[in-house]
Amino acid sequence: MLSNVVANQEIHAQYGGVVPELASRAHQQNIVPVVQQALQKANIVKKDLSAIAFTKGPGLMGSLLVGTSFSKSLAQALQIPLIGVNHMQAHILAHFIDDTTHSVPPFPFLCLTISGGHTEIVKITNFFKMEILGKTLDDAVGEAYDKSAKILGLRYPGGPLIDQHAKEGNPLAFKFTKPKVGALDFSFSGLKTAILYFIQREVKQNPNFVKENLNDICASIQHTIVSILMEKIQNAVKQTSIKHVAIAGGVSANSEIRKRLKESEKTMGWKTYIPKFEYTTDNAAMIGIVGYYKYLERSFDANTTTATARLKVDE
Ligand SMILES: Nc1ncnc2c1ncn2[C@@H]1O[C@H](COP(=O)(O)OP(=O)(O)O)[C@@H](O)[C@H]1O
Ligand SMILES: [Mg+2]
Questions:
Q1: Ligand 1 proximity of 105 Cβ (cutoff 6 Å)
Q2: Ligand 2 centre and the CA of 6: distance in Å?
Q3: What pLDDT is stored for residue 190 in this prediction?
Q4: Domain at 10-91+280-296, CATH from 3.30.420.40, 3.40.190.170, 3.30.200.20, 3.40.640.10
Q5: Using CB atoms within 10 A of its CB, is residue 32 exposed (0-12), middle (13-18) or buried (19+)?
Q6: Would the CB of 58 count as within 6 Å of ligand 1?
Q7: Given the CA of residue 18, which atom of ligand 1 is nearest to it?
Q8: What is the pTM of this model?
Q9: According to CATH, what is the number of the domain 103-275?
């Protein structure tokens, strides 16, 4: 991994969530300078490249099209192969970046992929054979974090802020009920509504309730969410007898899930794999690592390839 340049889009914070049209425009502005910066940091030039990997989906169509069109043009101009990468596979295979400096999960392993758009438990048999064992029936975990944060008046993305406040609070201060769904399925929309009603009720009694109890509220929300995640992983291990457990995706940056998973090595006898912090939220290195494994297999895309907004981890 020679360079991993990430351009953040501040524009969305004032709207309290990602505005698709603004995201595509920001991609359009950022893509040329970001690629130039990546080459510069890596200390290489364009003609040193052997292939171009890009995200073909899933995601917001406008943003995907910017990357797809740019990559097709670059690959064609340089006369090198083009490699379309599945964003969900990339989160998981991020565990294989810098594989000489840490232990990588052996096949088969389980991965809990948790992000702003997805929540799924995946069984990984080899680099490209993946199977979804369970997923969310409604909101994703990251969405639950971001929407709860919005209710509390915290800025977008709220996940990291809830995590920060939670560290100072009492996780048992307030109780939220957990959803009743299948052993490997998730549901977070009920929790979001429960939090909304709870806050509305308390604020009626005390207008300063959120301000006075912010750390305890955040800690209680986080405790509820992470307990659900741990329970589901436990169910998946029980069902598959696979004891190698990884986490991936933006929410795997969360301090509580990282801590609880690490503890499970002792309490549950699992072997766990926690990604480096910089490979948790969306990044270029994770697309690069999938590109690398596909390159070894000569798995290339034609220049007629197109972006796909909906793409499962096994596609
Ligand atoms: N420390 C954290 N705790 C909880 N959620 C987090 C944390 N850091 C990032 N997130 C959440 O991760 C999500 C972003 O995930 P990511 O994979 O980068 O994006 P996307 O879902 O768009 O692919 C957001 O919902 C964000 O709030
Ligand atoms: Mg992501």
A1: no
A2: 13
A3: 96
A4: 3.30.420.40
A5: exposed
A6: no
A7: 22
A8: 0.97
A9: 3.30.420.40
